[in-house]
Amino acid sequence: MRTLLITGPGGSGRTTVAAATALAAAREGARTLLLGTDPADTLGAVLGTATGPAPVTVAPRLTVLRPDAAAGFRDGLTALQDRATAALDLLGAVRLDAEELTPLPGAGELAALRALRDAALSGDHDLVVADLPPTPAALALLALPEQLRRYLRRLLPPERQAARALRPVLGRLAGVPLPAEALYEAAARWDVELAATEAVLADPDTSVRLVAEPTWAGADAVHTARLGLALRGLRADALVAGRVLPEDTADPWLAGPVAQQRKILDEWRACHDVHTVPHLGRDPRGVDDLAALPVPPPGAASSAVAWPVTDRLAEDGVLVWSIPLPGAVRDDLDLVRRGDELVVTAGPFRRIVPLPSALRRCTVQGAGLHEGELRVRCAPDLRLWPTSR
Residue 252 maps to which CATH number? Predict the structure, then answer.
């Protein structure tokens, strides 16, 4: 099964392209799920059919689903209260009724990730097309599983569970129930769920696609998105230029926008697989309009990018970790090593990545940016590095 994640700047026609791509795949015979993540029914506006948490079939082999973040939040918190009854009673807490619960910030992102994971693992579809939020929010969404798993490991280290067998005894001696067991069980369950979501995002059959209008604002947004994806170890499999104006227009008022569009498209083609989707002269609505849009088919190749470690011990006495960061600016880069992790900041984006095993026994000597690639030089720490006998 393939998963296609579509994002782009707000107002770029991202939802229209996602719907058209899903429809084209369904017409080619693929059992396709179109997954919406917008709390507002923007998908319904494009399709001409209301969408929601109940799957809706809008065309043969095409199903549309838009998860309800509020319902998911209420169900999750109610279940958590049920599992933590003993701890809540111990604290004298008053349970919250489902009717008074409203979703907190972040509930929508978690609902979208859960729906994406469940759809990818269900086996009911050949293709899942996810209409992600605008690029900044989409990049934060893609980072969420990794970040949450790191927070869980720091706050509730798995190695501390070695004393789990003693907790019932300690609870009887203290005369009160200890909530730690339920807490660790919940953390373990969350870790498994987040790991499954992370596996879907990292799967070779998952690809990312950008949608943007060929305007200066669109060009800036694509540049930023390319850097943000690279820091996640991803690249877009294609760039869809939407709402492209006709080149042969005789309208002198459009001559300036068309010339600007041509220049931007030429720049994009130098570093992206660009597909143009013409402006219909109106906002597309319904399957007939969507079928008229020449969107590219879902790519078969993975969007993942390797971060290789090169052995230069014999020549320079170092190992070099190469991190592709196209579009990065030297003044906006920052590196900090924290234990066995490296904190990489590139422009507005930051990622904390574990060091490859070989580099954990090294000290960072320096780093340099060369032609869109960050090269981190690491020298073996003789106190930790294995010696030959």
Answer: 3.40.50.300
